[in-house]
Amino acid sequence: MGLPIHPRVLALICCSIVVLATFALYYGKINGNNHADEQFNNLQPDSSRPVLGQAVLDQPIQPIFMDDRLDKNKVALGELLFHDPILSADNTVTCASCHNLAAGGSDNRVQSIGIKNRLGNINSPTVFNSSLNIAQFWDGRADTLEEQIDGPVHNEEELGTNWLQITAKLKNERHYTKLFNKIYSDGISENNIKDAIASFERSLLTVNSPFDKYLLGDTSAISENAIKGYDKFKEYGCIACHQGSNVGGNLYQPMGLMGNYFKERETEISSADLGRHNVTGLEEDKFVFRVPSLRLSTLTAPYFHDGSAKTLKDAVQVMIKYQLGRQAPEEDEDLIIEFLHTLVGEYKGRRLDQ
Amino acid sequence: MKKPQLKTVLTVLILTSVLSLLFVKSNSHDIQKHHNVITNIQQLSYHDSLFNEAILDLKANQFANYDTLTRQTQAIERILKWLVSSESGIYNTHGQDLDQTINQATDAFFQKKSLMERFQSHNGILKNSLYYFPTVVQNFKLDSNNTSTDELVDRLFKEILLFHVRSDEKNATQAAATIKILENTDKASVSDVIKHAETIIHRKQALDKSAKELFTQPTRKSVEAIYTTYSQYNADIIKSTRGYRIAMYAFALLLLGYIFKLFLTLRSTMTKLEKSLNELEFQKHALDEHAIVISITPDGLIEYANERFQKTSQFNENELKDHVRNLIDYRFHPWSFTSNIRNILKTGKTWRGEIRCVTKDQNFYWADTTIVPFVDKAGNPSRYVALLTDITEKKAVDERIFRLAHYDALTQLTNRPYFLEKTENALIQSKNNSAKMAVVFLDLDNFKIINDTLGHAFGDTLLMFVGDHLRECVRETDVISRMGGDEFTIALPSIASNNEIEQIVESILSITNKCVRIENRDITISTSIGVSVYPEDGESVDSLLKNADMAMYQAKTEGKNKYVFYNEDLKTENLIRHKLDNDLKEAVRENQFELYYQPQICTDSKKICAVEALLRWNHPERGLIAPDAFIPSLEENGLIVEVGDWVLTQACTQLAAWKKIGFDLKISVNISPRQIRNDHLLEVLKNILNFRAIQPADLQLELTESGLLDNTELTSSLLEKVNDLGVAIALDDFGTGYSSLSYLKKLPINTLKIDRSFVRDLPDDQHDLEIVATILAMAKNLGLATVAEGVETMEQRDFLAENGCDYLQGYMFSKPRNAEDMLKMLHDDNSNPDISSVTNIAS
């Protein structure tokens, strides 16, 4: 073989392409590991979390702290998407429509309103502190926040769209393409949209509540009555389920333990009333629901999966009756409610009930 | 060419692909990824332990909330999800064994989580009832007044407490029995106690059961299985990557070897190339030195020109990037020249030829040019390369050679052979076109005399002058030639009429009006012209030339300075002339000449004191012939010198004879102009004077005025030398020629001979009378002797004697007579005292 010039040049180009392609693939694989790194990071303890004394750790209720391990860019992108009607079929509804951050992270309606003003079949829960829950929805059908997003996106009464549509719409928006490309190597995709929104949702934590301050040693942070209310809360046994940093949200219980709630409710039983059974299909999971968080209970009326309790007091009474199998004097109920008020924390430096 | 290229490309592509494949394969064991997988598996195990720990804590009432469980569950689910995701890269890629272990672990954890939900639920309810149970019991007791029931409740309380602490089914059974008893008491307030007691029993049992099931879930085992399977698999990968790495190393060594081989080839090729380049450079240098090289586009634009071209053409590089046609000298070449060349080149043929090119300063140079067209695949010329060699000098030499061979060096007119060639061609053309054609033959009048007397240089200048004049007279197509000497010929092709010829010929004759100044001397010249016309006067160049020559001769004969057209009569005259020429030659050979003598009478003594020797020709057929009939012919053919010598010698011999007898005489001999052109005459004279018994003073040479023509230095010095010998010189026919008095001053003349034309009408013609009287007076004053010719009457004799003429000659005294008669006359004269009284003895 001689040394003809043209073939050499051509071959050089081909070689370059092959080598570059190899490296591109290789680099892509390495890049793909970033998620693994993040995954790995999540296993590390949160450095921002202060070391708590045993007295605090022994408490059934734990204070909430911001999670500093979150990627700020993802949070910002998620926040943008959360408030963008582009995620709905007719560009009218946003995530924030039902999960109003200014109104406690939900919409204070019995049933939420979706696209075309359609009425949803469920009471929307608050989005705040949702990351602290064991699973999402009343029946826990979504293990993660990412999975949860699938629900409202596809629900005809909520956003009423699909991922194909959403990604296509987002790809038309220059600034989204730019933002996604900056954060994700593969740009706009279903997973990345979910990841961004979930990241944002993980940042939706209500910190510095008066009760948290009290827990951490500030005895003047809450009133005497509230302290009494906390004692009543424990004494009545509410604490058995409403515990942890989210004051609930981390376990399932049947509705109507000590009384037949559905029978006495006097409305027909719907499929939603079957609760956890809809997910597991187990007989014993019928009428079982995820215990809701009480962190923002003062802001998220109406209450229960069917929104049947219009006021907090109603809810407290129902709970004491059907779940604890007791009666309580109104005085105790008020104290408990007073205590519940102290659970409301701040988001972006602002207390949510103010 | 195409196939090897493709082959090379494919080879290189395959080699690169193999190398890349080896690289990818050898990197398939990604340490970072491996680390992530191992860490996650370990974390899974770790979270499982924490999960178990939390359950135990909760069961032991150590823990008041489920946040830990939530966190561990979430962490476990995240890791499980990660394991089956593409990010980990171990699911669906590492074979069924690993997938199966992961699936098993997922199932186990799912079961465990489900049990955990139940555990939490039971635990919550259990705790709630446990919290409340003492209160409920106390409330019942406060209301109750029945001690037996109280006891039962107490027993139940105790049994529940024991059951809760011990988890012993026996206590549960006992408690259940107690509840049964209590149920029978219809106390309403006891139902609350029973409800919570039952809740505690059932939930405690359910809690223990779910905890037990929970711990029996094979989560730890399945995680260990994942770890083992993955490790096995990883070991295999590490093993295979090691193999690929070795292969890659070997491959790299191979490539290195190949590259080294290429390097060697490249180096040798480069050396060769360098050598070739040097050679090329050298050749280019040589070529540049020798030739102009131009590369021309199909549109005719110059795209490359070497330095040589810039040097030769004086255009700089940018100016040369022009259309090639701007280089051709159209002052010489026709406009169609370039298109003709292009037409040849278009056929793909090489063009060769000579081009006259222009330089920047509008000079020209000749280039021997070769233009080679380079043809592309379609057959169209893609470019032309022209090689030009400057042949200007060669061209000039060629031209000089041509001129030397074909032209007369002096006049730059065509020479004889070239004229014949050209005329031959013209004649053929005329024949083809049925056209008329004329040949003009001309000869300068008296040129031989001028050449002999004034010198060759003078003659040459005159010939050049004539040449220039002829060029002015003829048309461009006509051919002028100098045939030799003072003969010129002109071919006039395509003649319409004789009128046209006459016009040309007359303009040639007008040369007499011109005056050429040579060496401070103004000279005029005349010419005699003969003309022959094709087809009337001849069909060949030869005959035309001959006939024109004949006509010219006729013109000469008819008195020169005129032209004559050839006609048939000339042929006869020519024959006569030829015969005369031949006869004369024979006459010289056969000595047919004879001298006659005419006496000259001395005016004072009235006796014969001198004789004039006169030449006569005794023609064997025609008899005695007078000199006028043959002297011009003798002069023409040059015999005059030989005859002249003979005349001089014969005359002197005769005189010596007469002197011997006792007659004291002088003798006059006529001398031809041709005899005084060189020193030959002097030699002859000296010879005669040495060997003949005569004195120099006895001899007198007679020269005509016209014979002297121009008083050149040569003539003057010769006559001077003759005079020095003591020989007298007489000017014959005085008054008829140019009669320049300057002759008398410059030349050593002793005697004037008054022409008979002046004497003839004396003394009646007053005009002649005055002239003769003046001449005689002038001669006396100048100290010259005088001789009157043609004296025929007494009156003439008397007038001349009265006016002081020294000698008289004429028929009155005697006609010319031969030596014998002359001797008789001399005898008579001696006896007769007064000859002048004798009237015409001869008659």
What are the low-pLDDT stretches of chain B, counting only 5+ consecutive residues below 50?
836-843
- What is the number of strand segments of chain B? 22
Could you give me the name of the CATH homologous superfamily of the largest domain in chain A? Cytochrome c-like domain
Query: Greatest interface and its residue counts?
Result: A-B, 66 and 58 residues
Query: What is the CATH C level class of the largest domain in chain A, in words?
Result: Mainly Alpha
Strand percentage of chain A, roughly?
under 5%
Polypeptide structure, described:
The complex is a heterodimer of chains A (354) and B (843). Chain A is built from 14 helices and 4 strands. With 354 residues, chain A is an all-alpha fold. Chain A folds into 2 domains: 72-203, Cytochrome Bc1 Complex, Chain D, domain 2, CATH 1.10.760.10; 210-351, Cytochrome Bc1 Complex, Chain D, domain 2 (Orthogonal Bundle), CATH 1.10.760. The longest helix of chain A has 38 residues, at 5-42. Chain A starts with a helix and ends with a strand. The model of chain A is unreliable at 31-43 (pLDDT under 50). Chain B has 843 residues and is an alpha/beta fold. In chain B, strands 13-14-16-17-18-19-20-21 form an 8-stranded mixed β-barrel, surrounded by 5 helices. Chain B has a 5-stranded antiparallel beta sheet with strand order 2-1-5-4-3, with helices on both faces. Classes of the chains: A mainly alpha (354), B alpha/beta (843).
Write the layout of secondary structure elements.
The complex is a heterodimer of chains A (354) and B (843).
Chain A: H1 5-42, H2 54-57, H3 72-82, H4 95-98, H5 145-154, H6 163-172, H7 174-183, H8 190-203, H9 210-215, H10 224-235, E1 252-254, H11 261-265, H12 277-280, E2 288-290, H13 312-323, H14 330-341, E3 346-347, E4 350-351
Helix pairs in contact in A: 3-8, 5-8, 10-14, 13-14
Chain B: H1 2-26, H2 31-59, H3 67-84, H4 96-143, H5 147-166, H6 169-184, H7 190-216, H8 219-290, E1 292-296, E2 302-305, H9 307-313, H10 317-320, H11 337-346, E3 351-358, E4 364-375, E5 381-390, H12 392-406, H13 416-433, E6 436-444, H14 447-454, H15 456-473, E7 479-484, E8 487-495, H16 498-509, E9 516-518, E10 521-523, E11 527-534, H17 541-557, E12 563-565, H18 568-590, E13 593-602, E14 608-619, E15 623-625, H19 631-637, H20 640-661, E16 666-670, H21 680-691, E17 699-704, H22 705-708, H23 713-725, E18 728-734, H24 741-746, E19 751-754, H25 756-759, H26 766-782, E20 785-788, H27 794-802, E21 807-808, E22 817-818, H28 819-831
Helix pairs in contact in B: 1-8, 2-3, 2-7, 2-8, 3-4, 4-5, 4-7, 4-8, 5-6, 5-7, 6-7, 14-15, 17-18, 20-21
